[in-house]
Protein: TMM88 protein
Amino acid sequence: EPRSAWCCLLWTLLVVTMNSLVFCMNLLLIFVIFTIVLLPTIVVVYFGFQCHSQVLHSAARYCKTFLDDNSSSALIILGFIIMSPLIVAAMAIYCSVAKRLQLFLCFQPYSRAVYKGVRWRWYEEGGLCRCARGWNPQVKAWV
Structure:
């Protein structure tokens, strides 16, 4: 049965707020995972650019002692070469964590706000935290 106009508006705000929070949680998780996994690339490229004479040319002791322009260029190239496999690894880690925590099941369709008596998806499946239950090791990360 459809809800009244005001009730529908309030439930719509609730559904939009919940979906926005789940979206922000996913973005935060992506940011944390990618930052941790890509940290070696970030460090290598940073030092390469910082010590190259035609980019930043830092006066730091390690730049004068260990890194000249050729080694700085090598660091920059190495950083960009190792970036591709690390991006793939970070995405695989994010997908497996998201599947394990079942984050995408937290998104709710708009029909929850429009009609009365429609149960929330997480309620139908046994609670908010599905990850606390037993985990099936036979389930693949890529479905």
